[in-house]
Amino acid sequence: MSLSLRPISPEEHLAFIKGLPSASHMQVPAWGGVKAEWGSESLGWFDAAGNIVGSALVLYRQVPKVKKYLAYMPEGPVIDWYDENLQRWLDPMLAHLKRKGAFAVKMGPPAVIRRWDSATIKKAIADDTAKALADVQPAFFDPRAEGLARRLRASGWQQDNSGGAGFGDVQPRYVFQVPLAGRSLDDILKGFNQLWRRNIKKAEKAGVEVVQGGYDQLPIFHEIYKVTAERDHFIPRPLSYFQRMWQALNAEDPNRMRLYLAVHEGEALSATTMLTVGQHVWYSYGASANHKRHVQPNNAIQWRMMQDAYAMGASVYDLRGIGGSLDKDDHLFGLIQFKLGTGGQAAEYIGEWDFPINKLMYKAFDLYMSRR
């Protein structure tokens, strides 16, 4: 049975997303308002009865001086990725994007191919038996995701693995998640390692209070975030980005974005943002001061967010990206080491895929991006 595709209104798009257990926060219509430097469009797939059965938020980045665009669907589109006839979804999408002037399409199927539990990863690190997650036996493997990757490649989609997995894609291929469904809060806390539990108690004993902030507290978050950027050597986003994110996302749903502050003796030492779509909660941005680290505000703020996610009925608390390396000398090793303490799982998505519509322009753009 064929499917039709057409642009849909933000209201139609949001109504479809609300009918699902979850979808990526980058596939809700309001995300187009966050990415103001991109154009955006909501698309819907319809069955023969006229029912909407899939959606996409497409971001368009124009090539300078030419009316040609990179069409990007981060962590999307939201379709049946395991349909045996995948082309009935992808062919009308590519035809529409070509008509819109796209020279290439980038998408990120939200398909998990492998999962590893914390205990297995810790053992591999301790025994020095693996230098990468890919070398560790997974606790879960989905052959459907592997088959999906084969089908995409066979139909002309490309994937650049030259930079390795992890942060080689625009969105992280490896993420770290704490399952919440079917567990008690006590069970979740017991899943933390001893250091995490001890640090949570330290923070409580020291008088660290984790509070929920609002739009007016975003400048406090941003000042700490700038400190973090200088310490960790990355370029910080401007305050206006987070203000725009708050306004766009919370206009769509008042619980879409939250701000948390870990306060000690009247001073915010740590701050985080949290995003929610359906039963999926993400730790989005985090920031911490350079001083008073001994009162452990970071562990305290994460535990509070997990508790709130649990109270909201979330099935998973997503700590977002980690690198794929288990090498202790790797610059991202500290990231996975911190997140392993939650007792959660590392998950590998099949990554992002490109479809060159204009191959010459695609090669030129790829060369331009590689030199940036």
UniProtKB/TrEMBL annotation:
- Is Cell wall biogenesis/degradation among the key words of this record? yes
Q: Which InterPro entries match?
A: Acyl_CoA_acyltransferase, FEMABX, PG_Glycine_Bridge_Synth
**Gene3D superfamilies in the record:** 3.40.630.30
Note one Pfam family from the annotation.
FemAB
A molecular function (GO) held by this record is: aminoacyltransferase activity
| SUPFAM superfamilies named among the record's database cross-references | Acyl-CoA N-acyltransferases (Nat)
The biological processes this protein is annotated with in GO are: cell wall organization; peptidoglycan biosynthetic process; regulation of cell shape
Mind listing the UniProt keywords for this protein, alphabetically?
Acyltransferase, Cell shape, Cell wall biogenesis/degradation, Peptidoglycan synthesis, Transferase
Does the keyword Cell wall biogenesis/degradation belong to this entry? Answer: yes
Q: What PANTHER family does the database record attribute to this sequence?
A: LIPID II:GLYCINE GLYCYLTRANSFERASE
Q: Which family does it belong to?
A: Belongs to the FemABX family.
Q: What is this protein called?
A: Peptidoglycan bridge formation protein FemAB
